[in-house]
Amino acid sequence: MTRDTFPARSFDLIHARFVLNHLPEREEALGRIVHWLRPGGVLVVESFSWFPVDSSPHAAYRKAMLRWSDLARDAIGTDSRWARNYPFALVRHGLGDLGAQTVAQHVRGGTALADFWRMTVNMSKGSLLEQGYLSAGEYDAFAALLRDPDFWDLASAVTQAWGRR
User: Fold this and answer.
1) What digits encode the pLDDT tens for the residues 95-140?
2) Contacts of 36 (CB under 8 A, 6+ apart)
3) Within a 13 Å sphere around the CA of 67, how many CA atoms are in the beta-carbon half?
4) Helix, strand, coil abundance in the chain, percent, nearest 5
5) Residue 2 included in any domain
6) Does 37 map to a domain?
């Protein structure tokens, strides 16, 4: 998406799922993708939107998730809040017939969704601790919450948008 190319107007449908927010050059990549769409072709983009986590009443959960997001931003340029701009980004790149939706799921400790987030953050545990994003105690409190079936909160939302060339 950032290096390889396709001929202009190659695709009727492109679905970019959980990728654009991880690219520092996301606007340029989006422009390339739109260039690959045939007239009448549809682009669907989706990524996590972090706003439900920003307002979590659970300090350990909120801090660990936000600091993990900060680590991803600092390490590779991920913007966990950029998906909120999807409809505007599609307009800027000339797409029409736009639509968008955002869905937030509840996460309950001990469920598959909680395990997904606990294991996702755990993959970066070493960096989070070594680089001072979290203390060991903060990480442990987060992991314990996500194992506790009495824990309920909102996971990050998923924002989707689509448009036609």
Assistant:
1) 999 999 999 999 999 999 999 999 999 999 999 999 999 999 999 9
2) 6, 7, 8, 9, 10, 11, 14
3) 23
4) 45, 25, 30
5) no
6) yes
